[in-house]
Amino acid sequence: MTNETTPGTEVDINDVFDDLLLVEERLSEESYQRGLEAGAKQGNVDAYHFGYHRGAEIGAELGYYYGVICAQEGGFEGGETPSKGELLLRELKKEIEEFPTFNDLEVDLLERLLKLRNKYKKLCVLLKISAKYTKPNELSF
């Protein structure tokens, strides 16, 4: 308490109650701040692990598409006029190579990923190959 009594002075009971109320508020604020800091630390760890694993999934998917594209490149004869499939293949390869490898808040990664998926499916239709991508955790033997 902040009201210390000295011999011969009277303590107002209202001041004592005010001090008790302020102690409770101060302790409540300190506890809140400690809890907020602990939650932020744990939240950062959880967010890091989520982002890491989600990024690995996206990387594996784009790597699969890139491998299919590279394998299909050898099938084109290199004529004067490229076919629709060849043009789309080149475009898709370039977009995968330029896909952001870091977190940029100005780039909508989900939108870009969805566009890449759609282009990949269209490429597979044009080249008459299977568009099936099996996620690594969905494989069964």
From TrEMBL:
Segments forming a coiled coil: none
Tell me which InterPro entries the record gives.
Essential_protein_Yae1_N, LTO1_adapter
Ranges for domain Essential protein Yae1 N-terminal? 32-69
Q: Name one Pfam family in it.
A: Yae1_N
Superkingdom, taxonomy of origin = Eukaryota
PANTHER family recorded: GEO13458P1 (PTHR28532), ORAL CANCER OVEREXPRESSED 1 (PTHR28532:SF1)
What family is this?
Answer: Belongs to the LTO1 family.
What is the protein's name according to its record? Yae1_N domain-containing protein
Gene that encodes the chain: 5565727
